[in-house]
Amino acid sequence: MTARLLPSLFLAFFLACALVQIPFARYLKNRPVVEKIGYVPHAELLKMGSADQKQFMAALLVSKVLTYFGGVTQQAERKVVIPMDIRGIHRHLEGALKLDPYNMDSYYFSQALFVWDARNVPLANSLLDYGMKYRTWDWYLPFFAGFNSAYFLKDYRKAADYYRRAGDLSGSDLYQSLAGRYLQASGQTDLAIAYLATMEKGARSSAIKKAFGIRLAAFREVKRIEAALARYRSENGKSPVTVQTLISSGYLAPPPRDPYGGEFYLSPEGTVSTTSKFAFAPKGKKP
Amino acid sequence: MRFVMFITLKGFFRDRLVHGLLISLVFFAAIPSLSNLSMRQVTELSITLSLSMISVLQLVLAVFLGGTSLWKDIERRYAFSLLALPFSRGRYLLGKFLAVALFTLGVAVVLGCVTCAVVTIAAASYPPDRPIVWWNLLLAIGMDACKYILLSSFAFLFATVSSSFFLPVLGTLAVFMVGSASQGALEYLGSSEAATMAPLFKRTVSYLYYLVPNFSAFDLKVNAIYGIPVSGRGMILTLLYFVAYLGAVISLAMLLFSRREMK
Q1: Interface pTM (ipTM) of the complex?
Q2: What CA–CA distance (Å, rounded) separates B6 from A111?
Q3: Does B44 touch chain A (CB under 8 A)?
């Protein structure tokens, strides 16, 4: 090969690179989000293979999950709802916690996702119990577990125990009083709003903050309906059949709006529910 | 011996190793920004990234400096002229090793100072829930340096019996992986998940556990990141283990090198 040919050869490859670059970048940009969570090796294998980089690997796994979650949330806002790979996320977070059981980001994200989106509260609480063995100083973990126990599992005794622990660790009377309120099983929506507001305020990731913000907005609407419902009952001596009754009789203005696209309704037990179940509906399905 | 050590150290500076390390400072400069990706532990992530960076750099130094320092002298025949001087081969090897160890310690001190600055910046932007335990951070960097000095001794050991740099480099990497995983492997074999494994395999692994170096005791990253107290007794035992194991490996390397046929 003569030296004269080399510049031409370089130019040819350079042009080929430039030509491939655009479709290649487009492919990566439009690659389905579901592909991006990927595979994670078995936790024990990961632990042995990470050598002395366990905490770094854990941080990488959490950041991968966060990027994936951010992508799916972004798609949901564009009305393209892709089912989230909850099992994949669980595998990643489990791996991260095996590598670094102190990693707070993993617990925080588990709480944000497994409780509300996956509705797998026992799984979230088992992770929180695991974390409490290591992060013995952290009041956030019993605070999360207490909320889950009371609000979702209706296990008020356990919730009170968790809140007592959170109160002892934080030195705050608030959690002691929450423990008392949970034992009475009252004010569920108020407590959900207080909890979501705390979570939203502390969230640093924009995707997580947005997710909590949407949920908080939905619960504030529930609270508004509950207040109108209580007024209607006290003034009319009976319960309305539908949310529409509250609107048409002037108790509820403006009409409530579910940010998840669902419709609020009154359950036969007289509580406020929504057809969206506080989650974006999967693609092609109506909430 | 001091003369060999001084010459070797001078060689590291002549080979512009310091320039390479200075480039790594660019990565350190990016750590405060990268740490902001964390949801709840910005300062902790800055410590994680800094300690990981130090570990990676020291691993590269241990593998390549330790693995090629002696080999290069033999390959370029510098060793032959030096060995003509009135000191033993063992002292020559020890001088070279001490130069690598000293350089590793120096790098740890410099990068430790950089880490303190980086963590301070990250903590100022997002204060941690728990105060940073600086002593733990310095101890983690110090113990990491000890670990990589021990690893360098393996590189020297392999270099004494090898005529190419493949064995020292790849052998040291293998020792690093095995030494880092040995504790985890033993714990896994003792768990219920490994109940179905062959008893012979389990016994072999448990014997190997005592033979191969155990680097997990030197890893204090979790203590530095989350401010978890360090066991004083554990540190004393680890340092004793370090001195004993290092002495054994280096003396074996000196023995093998003194008997090596040099052509």
Answers
A1: 0.77
A2: 57
A3: yes
The domain limits of chain A are 40-135
pLDDT one-digit tens code per residue, A20-59: 888 877 876 676 544 466 777 777 788 888 888 899 999 9
Smallest CA–CA separation between B96 and chain A, in Å?
Answer: 26
Helix, coil or strand: residue A135: coil
Radius of gyration of chain A measured on its C-alpha atoms: 24
Residues of A with CB below 8 A from B55's CB?
Answer: 52-53
Q: Which residues pair with A264 in a beta bridge?
A: A274
Q: Distance of CA B163 to CAs A63, A70, B72, B159, B259, Å?
A: 44, 53, 10, 7, 14
Cβ pair B180:A52 closer than 8 A:
yes
Rounded CA separation A44/A97 (Å): 11
For A273, phi and psi rounded to 5 degrees?
-130, 175
Interface test with A, best of B40, B60, B150, B188 (most A CBs within 10 A): B40
CB-CB contact of B24 with B61 (8 Å): no
The CA distance from B89 to B254, in Å, is 7
Predicted pLDDT at B118:
94
Whether B147 and A52 lie within 8 Å, measured CB to CB: yes
pLDDT of residue A179: 52
* B217, closest residue in chain A (CA to CA): A52
CA atoms within 13 A on the CB side of A109: 31
DSSP A71: H
**Cα–Cα–Cα angle for A96, A101, A107, rounded to 5 degrees:** 70
Q: Which amino acid is at A129?
A: D
For chain A, the straight-line distance linking the first and the last C-alpha, in angstroms and rounded, comes to: 67
Query: Per residue in B172-229, pLDDT tens?
Result: 999 999 999 888 888 888 777 777 888 888 888 888 888 889 998 899 999 999 999 9
How many residues are there in chain B?
Answer: 263
